[in-house]
Amino acid sequence: MAPTSTTTIFLILGNIWFWTLFFSNTCKATSPAPKFPAILVFGDSTVDTGNNNYLKTLFKGNHYPYGLDFPGHVPTGRFSNGKLIPDFLASMLNIKESIPPFLDPSLSDNNLVTGVSFASGGSGFDDITGVVGGIVPFSKQIEHFKRYIVRVQGIVGEKEAKKLISSALVIISAGTNDFGFNIYDMPTRRFEFNISGYQDFLQNKLHLFIEELYELGCRTMAIAGLPPIGCLPIQITAKFKTSHDRRCIEEENLDALVYNKKLARVLPKIQSLLPRSKIVYADVYEPLNEMINNPLKFGFVETKRGCCGTGFVEVGPFCNALTPVCGNVLEYLFWDSIHPSQAAYQHLSIYLEEKVIPKLLNDGNQSHTRFDQTG
């Protein structure tokens, strides 16, 4: 007897259900497990995914044209046209697609336990950096992290929270603002330090910050060095008065290189003092320098100015809805006069995934135990 139309419908629905379940389970089975349970981020605007949105500060990126190429084309507070390095790394490491800001009041439990950014645009290792800007200094970022730990303990329990913190990847990215605000553009610290002395002063601050994180349970940390500061469009603008005579400031780049060499030497010493820690230097200078010197290799055409406005001075509130943007942001290394574009951040993330992450995952670090969100 021929099947009725009702029987046919049930057979079709049953097949759809079966294959949907099959492919769903297949995807879950083949999806690699995250290398870290969470990413915890501290620093400045290069890694601030939106904390400044919730502060009384003018230094925000929560307005158009920021976020032009972010999923949904929405400004999120990130100081770029799209994603930042923590977002790309979270995706590459199979954790999640983006890292939310800790100060976002709508954070879900899952978004909280898989990692957040505590960073604040305008901050630095030096306490006086950005002090008048209403941003979150490093001393307060650590206080926010303590609040984070309490909240995670309330979600998964104290034992699992401890396991999560010890297994999480910590990223620290700062220092550029310290030199820009306090040495080069507004020489607040030049009366107290020469360049070498200020480099040592900042790295001592960083050392203390790393120790605080360690005492709170962090064990795996990637510490970013300085970029070629003298190649930031705003620094070039401050030095050269005409648009025809724009080139990197070699003295500032040399300062950054010396700072980075000191940092690369001191981090293994800090690691040796902190049992079961893995603390690795993350070089951002060389990959950025490579993009500047060989732009076509990466698809860039313009490296001396940003995409927003003239690209010489626009940043934060001066890069806004009334500011014209370039025709093709993919050709621009910089989004505004300070911050790289999403394309540049993506290239940097690939470099870090290849050169830095493996050093954090080798057998010398035994802290990466399985984390159970069920508590």
TrEMBL record:
Highest taxon, organism lineage: Eukaryota
Stretches assigned to coiled coil: none
Signal peptide per UniProt: 1-29
Lipoprotein among keywords: no
InterPro entries linked: GDSL, GDSL_lipolytic_enzyme, SGNH_hydro_sf, SGNH_plant_lipase-like
Pfam families noted in UniProt: Lipase_GDSL
Keywords (A to Z) from UniProt: Signal
Single GO MF annotation: hydrolase activity, acting on ester bonds
Record Gene3D superfamilies: SGNH hydrolase
SUPFAM superfamilies per the UniProt record, alphabetical: SGNH hydrolase
PANTHER family, alphabetized: GDSL ESTERASE/LIPASE EXL3, GDSL-LIKE LIPASE_ACYLHYDROLASE
Family indicated by similarity: Belongs to the 'GDSL' lipolytic enzyme family.
Protein name: GDSL esterase/lipase At2g30310-like
